[in-house]
Amino acid sequence: MKSLAIVSYTIESVNSYYNQIKSLFSDKITIKTYTLEDLGNYGDSEIKADVLLFPSYHLYKQIKSKVNKNTELLFAHRTISKSGLDTIFKLDEGSEVVLIDESPEMAEQIISIIYQLGARHIELNSFWTSNADDFDKFIILGQSDYTPKADKEIINIGNSLLDINSIIDIGMKFDLLSLLDRQDVVRSYKEIRTANFGFLKILGLTNSRESQLDILMQNIDAGVIGVNNDGNIFLYNENAKEIVNKEQVLNKKGSELFPEIPFDYTIESLKPVEEKIIKINGYDVVVSVNPLLHSRKMYGAVAIIRRYSDLEKKEYMLRKKLIGKGYTAKYNFDDIFGESDSITETKNIAKRMSKSNSSILITGETGTGKELFAQAIHNNSLRKEFQFVPVNCGAFPESLLESELFGYEEGAFTGARKGGKPGLFELAHNGTLFLDEITEMPMSLQVKLLRVLQEREVVRLGGDRIIDVDIRIIAATNKNIKEMVENDEFREDLYYRLNVLPLKIPPLRSRREDILGLVDYLKKSFKSDFILTDKAKEFLVNYSWKGNVRELRNCVEYLVNLGLRIVEEKDIPVDYSVKAFDNKLVSTEQNIIYEFLEQAGNNLKKYIFVLEELMSGGRNNQRLGRRTLSEIAKNKDIFISEQEIRTILLNLEKYKMAEIYKGRSGTVITEFGKKAYNYLSME
């Protein structure tokens, strides 16, 4: 930190100057104080300071030997206080007064100041050029060794003060003009009378304009850094300080402090730099630089900087206002009811998937809660603060779906909204786009969706502007999408883009232990307390529930509206032609079935085919081998290879559903296999 040494004749004047400087520059300057008497005891040592402040050249000459030749010098512009001037104005007109100061030079300076301030009703004389014995009235500034001892009238107008010129000089020497807050300067000089009227008037006008500019700079929601033609910083608002985290930058080279900001390019080329992303303090910052030109004259350049994350949040808030509150995810994983192993494992997998940004493909029968899982995944992800935008691909005709997804410019087609409309890809920026019934998307749109997933950019219909989007795609379907790919009904490349993280939602019949708990959960949501008989409970647990949780919900809602206190089996609104599962499975058998379903996956139909043929062979006392089963499949136009049949038979044996005999003795179905077949054939 630079240091300033104040040298004066008396301790009172030294302290007066010290207090003024300290109040304005706080602890930004190290201040040392010396009186002439102090320096008399200083020996031959030099005063150690970067800048020396003297009240007069006369004093400097007396201590010149103690001043280092590299030390900068300031000679004070002095003035008097308002109260001191008021005291002088109270003197009788025509009074002859002697002014006493520490040197002839200093006395003449103060006399000229007093006259310039308007006190011309008295005759002022310098102590150094007058005969003191001829006068009765003396003006002193604070204390003085020259005060008359005789019976004279002494008028003390207080210590002299540093005029505003000296304060500005000090600010310049220490690069601290930015600390001279305009209000503080004006407040400090309310009690000080300056003779520099022109400067004071200009300061008043400038302060007014600069205060308005300061208010604007501090309220603008961006960082602003301005440099002059020499590349030195003259403007630096609070937002810029917060973003770049640097103090004391004024009057320093902008290109050296902030090499990432292209100030030099703009000053040299007179060309603006449009918004670009740079790194400052590890943050992505968006910066633009524009030349300061007026009347074809260059005055420097100004940079506007914003943290990229702040810009993204602002854009998000604007989007949120634009689209309202419709696109939010309401459900979390706690809203997904069930304690069975299958649903618990599915939730655990989904939670792990939520932390990724990769695309998710959710498969499952209708009514299993695919959108519920999609919303829970979004709300458990890093994108939860942004939009969750669902779109049902089967609910729109092709042309309308395209305009909904991609948006359009004004005039893109007949009936297009004036001003255009942003698409759902744009509205989901930084959030999640949920494409339900993805298999209903037309092939032509599948191509465009694939491009969005690859390039992360969209172009509105009728437009040519590329819009960058950062979205996560969650797609869902209740169809066998893999089979559709094999039949050329869905693009293979898009399937693999979507199926990065596959999530299969188990049907309700594969987690029967959750059924009665779900009934109680749904009863509470409908504020009902009906009671199920044991027969009704048994029927609900063993019913096939083709519509899954949605069908169960409809069933409960129906029972609630019946208003019955006791619900019997006959009251349950289901199709009784769909027979409930007669062969009851014990708990251990149910667990084996649930585990088997996970193993079978999309090949479940092939397993059921093999079990059915083993059942048929058992009725005829036949053991069937894989070659025989392969021939039967071929005759029934079922595509299943002999190797696949071998794998299926091994898995059926693993789950106790079949028994394989050695050699060419074939395979037979077990009793548990028969029960499993009856259960699975209802799916």
UniProtKB/TrEMBL annotation:
GO terms for biological process: regulation of DNA-templated transcription. GO terms for molecular function: ATP binding. This is Sigma 54-interacting transcriptional regulator. SMART domains: AAA, PAS. Keywords: ATP-binding, Nucleotide-binding. It comes from the Bacteria. It holds the Pfam family AAA_lid_14. Residues 336-561 form the Sigma-54 factor interaction domain. The keyword ATP-binding applies. InterPro entries: AAA+_ATPase, AAA_lid_NorR, P-loop_NTPase, PAS, PAS-like_dom_sf, Sigma_54_int, Sigma_54_int_dom_ATP-bd_1, Sigma_54_int_dom_ATP-bd_2. PROSITE patterns: SIGMA54_INTERACT_1, SIGMA54_INTERACT_2, SIGMA54_INTERACT_4. The lineage of its organism: Bacteria, Bacillati, Bacillota, Tissierellia, Sedimentibacter. The keyword Nucleotide-binding applies.
